[in-house]
Amino acid sequence: MEGKGREAPSASGRNWAEMQSDVLMMIFFKIGLIEVLRAAGSACRSWRKVAKDEPELWRRINMTNHGYVGNARLLKDLTRLAIDRSGGILEEFSVQGFGDDDLLRYLCDRSSVLKKLCFISCYNFSAEAIAETAKKQPLLEEIQMTLGSYCEKVTEIVGNGCPQLKSFKFNNKWYHNPHDDPDYDEDISVDEEALGIAKTMHQLLHLQLIGNRLTNEGLEAILDGCPHLEMLDIRRCYNVEMDADMQALCARLKTIRLPSDSVGDYEFEAEVFSDEELDDDVNYDIPGFHDDFDENFFAMHHAVFGYWPW
């Protein structure tokens, strides 16, 4: 007879509940924190304890490539739970396809030691919330903002709030017809974002601007304002002309990816060739998404939080 409160061994004879916590953490890292939140962290009491009481497990929270097509917003509560479990030591935070100002405020209220932020296909962050996040995270060194919708001053806002920024990825799609771009405004200078980088990101080492509409004027300002820049990626930035003068200015860089260079190693759509109707559902840009929504998600959410996610 099994002792009271003990976990029964599996059919293979192993008692998975007695696995050492360091080994279990390695397994959790391997399967990904989303799976820990959804299921693995609730398999038995000992697993739940590690999932809940080991802040080190949540030092890096990655809520990307999650597969919830059209329903990514339902991960918001799980993301808050992950932030809570980090115990104030959260250093890297990545979200894809969801998030809003409330989530950023929740994040900043519980951690002030972030070093890396990654927003992919995030369309609901205001300039004010981004500015507040930048001010409250003085250790930020790496930021990625890919395929979102941001105001033209966002690069200046980020740079002013993050004086130690070393790596900045600010990627979009290149629209061969700019009027297809939902953020296109002919009254705004195409170099506005580049000038914001030049004015504020003086410690920058790595810069990626795939699909940006900057011109030689904007690129020259960046090269002048970012004297420590070593790596520059301007693939699909077709307004830039790599003439002899521009080549001379870029000669000091250790690595440069030019407008026409291959985007084969880039995981998102880099350019739009025709007048396409863009669906409000942004998730078609997100690799790893599928059409079959996890039917167990709602039951899992109710079990964890005690209410249905609607």
From TrEMBL:
InterPro entries: F-box-like_dom_sf, F-box_dom, Leu-rich_rpt_Cys-con_subtyp, LRR_dom_sf. SUPFAM superfamilies: F-box domain, RNI-like. Residues 22-63 form the F-box domain. Coiled coil: none annotated. Signal peptide: none annotated. It holds the Pfam family F-box-like. This is RNI-like superfamily protein. It comes from Rhynchospora pubera.
